[in-house]
């Protein structure tokens, strides 16, 4: 069965590459990766960076292998696979949070959507052991379930952790559901829905979601339409859309979102221009003194092919990553690592034009 899956994955990649009208070639001026990871068995989709509190050089990239017999994989900073979760039924996106309290202890967690079971799955880090009793159902009672995107929001005032979950399709206004993660007893986590929100164009789907904990906001890609911004805290009882940007700037799908933080309030938002093999860059703090104004700052061509998901950190991980690390999924069952300096050089060039 595994050999059949590998053949199917290879044929799928060949099919994509042959569709020149849909898939742009890698540009000659593309940023080259610092590291390309080992290949996964089936289909990479989304990465998340975990900073190891016992030594940043031991930090990990957690990535999804999106297939019926897929899972979460942990890569070291050299791109080597060092751990794998139990088998999951089509895990899609993944995100990480720190300091989740369970059994009176604080642990770090990775949470992924498991599409074929209509659940979210919660794993402890760095061992990737499940703490969810087999999964937590999401979008209960809905005709449209099929969970895809996920982002974790840690409220800074009390360190409560929430999961914001997207799906393949759903009604505009309540497309996203937000869950509070809590200790369910006996070492098992649970989740309760606390909010339903999010406008939807109906053009394609909402998969990429990213939360800015310090600024208390979230962004999500309404594919082929634009990037939407909302407040992240459900206690504010405010579902007003704060911004809609990126309209008309993407070749087709606006996809993975990553937030690079230069200070507690400044930095960059990077969004995959999937079919163009580039990343669009916007100021995290907004432009011209307006926190909800996002004119395009730069477009960076990269070596990634059809990038679905990305993550970034500004933390000094040592070596080539002294100013941080940018990670992006690529076709070919890999993730590409970029020393942040490579991306910053292109942003600076765009600023100076």
UniProtKB/TrEMBL annotation:
Protein name according to UniProt: 3-phytase
Molecular function terms from GO: inositol hexakisphosphate 3-phosphatase activity
PROSITE patterns for the chain: BP_PHYTASE (PS51662), PROKAR_LIPOPROTEIN (PS51257)
Span of domain BPP: 16-347
EC number: 3.1.3.8
InterPro entries in the cross-refs: 6-blade_b-propeller_TolB-like, B-propeller_Phytase
Organism in which the protein naturally occurs: Flavobacterium granuli
Annotated keywords: Hydrolase
Presence of the UniProt keyword S-adenosyl-L-methionine in the record: no
């Amino acid at each position: 069965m595994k050999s059949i899956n590998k053949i199917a994955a290879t044929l799928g990649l060949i099919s994509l590459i042959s569709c020149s009208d849909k898939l742009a070639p890698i540009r000659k001026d593309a940023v080259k990766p610092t590291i390309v990871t080992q290949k996964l068995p089936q289909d990479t989709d989304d990465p998340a960076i975990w900073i190891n509190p016992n030594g940043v050089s031991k930090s990990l990239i957690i990535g999804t292998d999106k297939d019926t017999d897929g899972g979460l994989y942990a890569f070291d900073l050299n791109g080597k696979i060092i751990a794998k979760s139990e088998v999951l039924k089509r895990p899609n996106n993944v995100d990480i949070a720190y300091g989740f309290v369970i059994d009176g202890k604080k642990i770090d967690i990775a949470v992924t959507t498991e599409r074929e079971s209509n659940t979210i799955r919660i794993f402890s880090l760095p061992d990737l052991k499940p703490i969810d009793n087999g999964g937590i159902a999401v979008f209960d009672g809905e005709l449209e379930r099929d969970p895809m995107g996920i982002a974790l929001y840690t409220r800074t005032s009390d360190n409560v952790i929430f999961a914001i979950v997207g799906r393949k399709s759903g009604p505009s206004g309540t497309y996203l559901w937000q869950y509070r993660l809590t200790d369910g007893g006996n070492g098992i986590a649970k989740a309760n829905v606390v909010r339903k929100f999010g406008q939807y164009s109906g053009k394609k789907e909402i998969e990429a979601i990213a939360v800015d904990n310090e600024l208390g906001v979230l962004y999500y890609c309404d594919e082929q339409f634009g990037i939407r911004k909302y407040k992240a805290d459900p206690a504010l009882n405010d579902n007003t859309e704060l911004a809609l940007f990126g309209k008309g700037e993407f070749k087709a799908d606006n996809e993975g979102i990553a937030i690079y933080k230069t200070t507690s309030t400044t930095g960059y938002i990077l969004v995959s221009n999937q079919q163009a093999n580039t990343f669009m860059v916007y100021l995290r703090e907004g432009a011209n003194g307006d926190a909800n104004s996002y004119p395009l700052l730069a477009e960076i061509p990269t070596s990634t092919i059809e990038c679905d998901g990305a993550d970034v950190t500004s933390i000094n991980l040592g070596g080539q990553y002294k100013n941080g690390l940018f990670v992006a999924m690529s076709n070919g069952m890999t993730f590409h690592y970029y020393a942040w300096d490579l991306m910053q050089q292109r942003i600076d060039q765009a600023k100076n034009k």
